[in-house]
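subagent[fold] <- orchestrator: predict structure for attached chain, return tokens only, no commentary.
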Amino acid sequence: MSEALPITPTASHALGDPCAAVSLGSASEGAARAIGLVEAMRRAKKSAAPTPDEIVEAQASLERRIRAHLAKGRVQVTLTDNRYTMISVRRLNPSAAKAERVAPAPGGAKVDAKDRAPRRTSERKYEVRLHHMFAEADPVITRALARYIADNDADASRVLGDFIDSNSDHVRGRGRRAPAQVIFTQGETHDLRAIYDELNARYFGNRIDASITWGARTGTPRRRNSIKMGSYAVEDRLIRIHRSLDRAFVPRYFVAWIVFHEMLHQVHDIRVKNGRREFHSKEFMADEAQFDQYAEARHWERSHIDAILTY
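subagent[fold] -> orchestrator:
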């Protein structure tokens, strides 16, 4: 996303609707709705009350507009005021089969076996968290969102990156250009968002304010000399976890330990000692050892290092 390109007439024609022109009247109405939405989001953040109607309506409207460009699948949109992550996508695979309960037949009659067969479902679900700058997006952007959400489309990602760059002034508290980050938390085996949320509540009192994502996919599997299993970008408050850990043989507690380690970087400042930066102070290491399954995770790492490095 950092290589976002300007939207050219060709790209707009490919991704958008030729009837997407906006009149001055509708533009001013959209601006008023956007202001009202931001105010509602800030009120909601300070209150435990139910989500304001303005936010619910804006989310439902955006869902409908994105869904119009999806060949299949359901999309659930949550609008945010996040300063660091503009788009977060969680792809949920459909269950292979969904068992249906069958009520006993009247009078004790037998129920045919075919009536008890599980019902197959093929509809995918996409849980998407979007910065509120997308609330009034035109058809060019909603179609790009749909193509990126469903297919990870490269052209769509460039259009979205340009949109984010041009709307960076909507990002609260950001004086510089906002990072165009697209986040994927749902892996093939592990869900990073669920792990992060559980750790944040259990160990940090929900005080950690960061985004988390799986790293980029790599090419043909091979034996590597080293793998950086996790990283934390201080400026963007972004945690990346290596895709090598998103495999069935890797236990959830091990992934959680790596995530926990990266979350600690927001708690402990990077010191300069003898002219060198110290990322892992004694205090950092002491806090890391507080992870419940610390010893177990360290032992598992030593026992499976070759498998981790082969990716």
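orchestrator: received. Logging for downstream: The chain has two domains: 1-96+120-184, 188-311. The longest strand covers residues 74-80.
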